[in-house]
Amino acid sequence: MAMINKAVIEEVIMRTDIQSLISGYVSLKRAGSMYKGLCPFHSEKSPSFTVYPQTNSFYCFGCGSGGDAVTFIKQIEHLDYPDAVEFLARRAGITVIRDEKSFVPKEKKFDKSRMYSMNVDAANYFHRALFSDLPGAKEALSYFTEKRKLSLATIKHFGLGYAPDSFDIFSKYMISKGYTYEELVAGFLCGKSEKGNYYDSFRKRVMFPIIDVAGNVIAFGGRVLDDTKPKYKNSSDTPVFKKSRNLFALNFARHTSSEELILCEGYMDVIALHSAGFTNAVATLGTAITSEQARLMSRYTKKVIICYDSDEAGQTATAKALKIIGEVGLDVRVIVVPGSKDPDEYIKSYGSDKFREVLNGAKMEFTYKMDNILAKHDINLPHDKVNALGELEREISRVYSEAERDVYIKIVSKKFDVDAKSIKSDVERIINKNIREYKKSEEERAKQTVAGYSDKINPDFAKAPAVAKHEEIILALLMLYPEHRKTVFGENLLRIDDFFTDFNKRVFESIEKAYREFGDLPDFNEFFSPEEVGRITKMKLTRMALSANGDEVLRESISSLKSSMQKKNSSGTSTFEDLTNLINKMRGES
């Protein structure tokens, strides 16, 4: 990380239209002077993500994410502060020069561009090794060309390679290229033994480079050529790679995925599908699918067809993927490859045309689940019939659309020869029960939120909620109105010791420091996490909704804060009466 001139940062933010920026990631619809959409940072079915063009900011009322364009890019692209600024600068056509001398890192940081270069050199080494005379290379090439029936063009297209069966031949090569062992370890390209010896992470394995949508080589997967365990070895998380946030072959698939993506379990399934003309196939990276990967897919497609193995493990993974992908609003279907374990085997046996027929017959989520439920029960037996019907009614109750529920009720009614009205009554009873339970849990969560419990951003809130509320009012007034900053800091009305919660102390300290140094607000993104910036944004939005924000309100809030602090310091704790008064005040303001 390095410092960037403040004037440049301000210009980048000023020249970034936040509505246009976010529209590249989220489908937004105008709502008065604002725009709304489904939040890209958590799963939801009703839009709670709001963009405010007037203030060039955003806020999600569901998960609390919020901030400006820099905050958004930090979260959506998983970048640190300077990289996020540079991302927006490139978009705005602004050149950014970092002042390396002005920044002293608190902990070891690795240069990302150097890490990318290191991975490219590693990928080139593995690819050349596949066609070399190194021990095991011929066997590795034969695995791809003979066993997997891949053409040389496909091998080159995916940059496939081979990691030699050697303790440290690869590591020594990389050292000769100018990389350090520290960098190689950080990039999961080599390891370090307890005795302090460095060794190659990948040995005697065919190699699959993992490339992000920007074309950077970010990680590797390796497969053994025999029955050694583990069969697959994948890069752990590194400074340039998070396996939960990437998909294998999305760099290729994104070009042909506008209508649908095919989600596979493994590298070879994806490669086989691409070779057969299905270039919209991707795979997770050695782990079960994550919500981040589902949201990533939603940027490039409308529909996902799950194509996992037909064994028990594959079906368990399918059930999880259905839930996670469905939560981000994508149309999700499932194919069960007949007579074969995976699509690679099926295509080899029957060809691409037959596989396309299988794709065209992909089942909707409910149909897939119904078939699985029916496979477990003999509905000719009364007991099994009742149990199967109960399972299907619970599945229907989870469907958001009432019209869609009616469709499924009619299907089940016909299949089970049961009156549709009876099934609908059961489904509605289940839904009402779930609503009651949800409201009860939400009421409890709301109580805890007001009291400050379960507050990960400001855990001190619960210790003195009345004090913390006054702190937030004052901070919001300082952020929204320059005249209030002039009053508070010009007259020295407040000191950091007047604040109780550590988080609000940090916010106040950053505001005061920025005011005294250059008479303006700080860029909170530089000093606070995206989650913390979301909380700061919420403070401002809450206060903006109120009309009374003048000097009298400021001075009264400061007086109330100091009075609350005196009470707390004298009693050692916040009283129940304080909390009750606070809740009543909040209700009056809302």
Describe the structure.
The protein has 590 residues and is an alpha+beta fold. 53% of the residues lie in helices and 11% in strands. It is built from 26 helices and 18 strands. The strands form 5 sheets. A 5-stranded antiparallel sheet has the order 2-3-4-5-6. Strands 15-14-16-17-18 form a 5-stranded mixed sheet, with helices on both faces. A hairpin with a 4-residue loop joins β4 and β5. α3 (69-76) crosses α4 (81-92) and α17 packs antiparallel against α18. The chain is globular and about 80 Å long. It starts with a strand and ends with a helix.
Task: Tag the structure with descriptive keywords.
single chain, 590 residues, five-stranded mixed β-sheet, 53% helix, globular
Task: Lay out the secondary structure.
Blueprint: E1 3-4, H1 6-14, H2 18-23, E2 29-31, E3 34-37, E4 49-52, E5 57-60, E6 66-67, H3 69-76, H4 81-92, E7 98-99, H5 112-130, H6 137-147, H7 152-158, E8 161-163, H8 169-176, H9 181-186, E9 190-192, E10 198-200, E11 205-211, E12 217-224, E13 232-234, H10 250-253, E14 261-264, H11 267-275, E15 281-283, H12 291-298, E16 303-307, H13 312-327, E17 331-334, H14 343-350, H15 352-360, E18 363-364, H16 365-376, H17 382-397, H18 402-416, H19 420-451, H20 465-480, H21 482-490, H22 502-518, H23 524-527, H24 530-544, H25 551-571, H26 576-589
Parallel strand pairs: 14-15, 14-16, 16-17
Antiparallel strand pairs: 1-7, 2-3, 3-4, 4-5, 5-6, 8-11, 9-10, 11-12, 12-13, 17-18
Helix pairs in contact: 3-4, 14-15, 16-17, 17-18, 17-19, 20-21, 20-22, 20-24, 20-25
